[in-house]
Every structure is written in C-alpha cells, then in structure tokens.
Amino acid sequence: MKKAVTPRWGWALTGSGHFFTECLDIVRSLDQVDLFVSKAAAEVVRMYKHNLDLPASVRLFRDTTASAAPVGNFYLRVYHTLILAPATSNTVAKCVAGISDNLATNVFAQAGKCRVPTIVFACDTAPELETRAPDRMVMVYPRRVDLENTAKLKSFEATQVVDSLAALHEAVERRRRELLENV
C-alpha cells in the first residue's frame, strides 16, 4: 500500500453551530489539514455567516459524491488523525449505529477501519448546555438518547470523545506532541 509523504490532519465538520467558529480557529492553527465539509456543515457556514478564510495548506472536500470519494485517502495512509468537531447528535448517533451515509460519518467509519486515531467533540454531553444559535446564545437540553449515544461512542476503539472546547484543545495538543515524538 502506498504511504503518503506527509500525513495530514483530517477534520470533519457537521451541521452544528456549537463552537463552530472556535473549531475553525483550531483548524487554522494546524499544518496540513484536509477539511471535510458535510452538506449540513455547508448550511451552517451560510446560516451563521462564517467566512472560512482557511490557510493555503488546507484542502477542502465538500459532500458532493454519493460514495464520499475522498475517504479513499484513509486507505493510502494520508491521515495520522481525524477530528470530528463539532459533532451533532445526529452524527454521533449514526457513528454509534455504524451508519456512514454522508461525508462526515463516512470519514469516521473509514478512520476506524484504518485505525486512525480519532477525536470527537460531541455537542450533546450534558443534560443542559448553552450553545450558539445564528443570532444569540440559547439553552438546549439534550435528550437521554443523545447522552447515551455520546457515552457509547466513548467505548469505540482509537476514539477519544471530548466534551468541551478546552478538552478539544488539550486533545489536539496532546496528539500534536505524540506526532512530534514519533518523527
């Protein structure tokens, strides 16, 4: 199997506004990122009036093919890490059930099959949360099933589920240090 010269970060965006801007800030701080934008994430970009303003080293993949063709890069060992952030309750539920019917869930499945370490910033991690709507902050109350799915995802191999922006920063920095140690 052909190995990539410079392994990259894979980052999948889903249709959540929960810390969306902050997740994009982290993407901008990384070198060599492939950004996977689901159809729902593209809608969030428009609704929340985000300007992606990405560095030239970021390659953008949009959810435009039925088979999510870009996932083949996982088999070529192009990625050392996948980050799924922010991850909606819908995305988490599909990941837990093994459903890979869009770009975000498909890259998650392929990362797992290729044993690529994955960090998931799940949106629904507590019985009540404050989150950003397009025009203001709002309170949300995740359902029991949402919280149960997040808990189930924590048991997946090579998958770290984080529950806050601070924990996402810590997980990314820890992974960055691991990669530097293995150079």
What is the CA-CA span between the terminal residues?
21 Å
Over all CA atoms, what is the radius of gyration?
A: 15 Å
CATH superfamily: Flavin prenyltransferase-like
Helix content: 25-40%
Please indicate the percent range of residues in DSSP E strands (runs of 2 or more): 15-25%
Instruction: Supply the number of structural domains.
Output: 1
- Assign the CATH topology: Rossmann fold
Anisotropy-based shape: globular
Q: Just name the CATH architecture.
A: 3-Layer(aba) Sandwich
Largest sheet: 6 strands, parallel
CATH hierarchy class name: Alpha Beta
Q: What's the total number of strands?
A: 8
Q: Which helices and strands appear, and what pairs or packs with what?
A:
Elements: E1 8-13, H1 20-29, E2 33-37, H2 39-47, E3 59-62, E4 79-87, H3 89-97, H4 103-113, E5 118-122, E6 129-132, E7 137-140, H5 144-153, E8 159-162, H6 165-181
Parallel strand pairs: 1-2, 1-4, 2-3, 4-5, 5-8
Antiparallel strand pairs: 6-7
Question: Describe it for me?
Answer:
- By secondary structure, this protein is an alpha/beta fold.
- The chain has a single domain (8-181), classed as 3-Layer(aba) Sandwich (Rossmann fold).
- It is built from 6 helices and 8 strands; from the N terminus they run βαβαββααβββαβα.
- The protein has helices spanning 20-29, 39-47, 89-97, 103-113, 144-153, 165-181, and strands spanning 8-13, 33-37, 59-62, 79-87, 118-122, 129-132, 137-140, 159-162.
- The strands form 2 sheets. It has a 6-stranded parallel β-sheet, with helices on both faces. Strands 6-7 form a two-stranded antiparallel sheet.
- A hairpin with a 4-residue loop joins strand 6 (129-132) and strand 7.
- Helix 3 (89-97) packs across helix 5.
- The radius of gyration is 15 Å and the shape is globular.
- The mean pLDDT is 89.
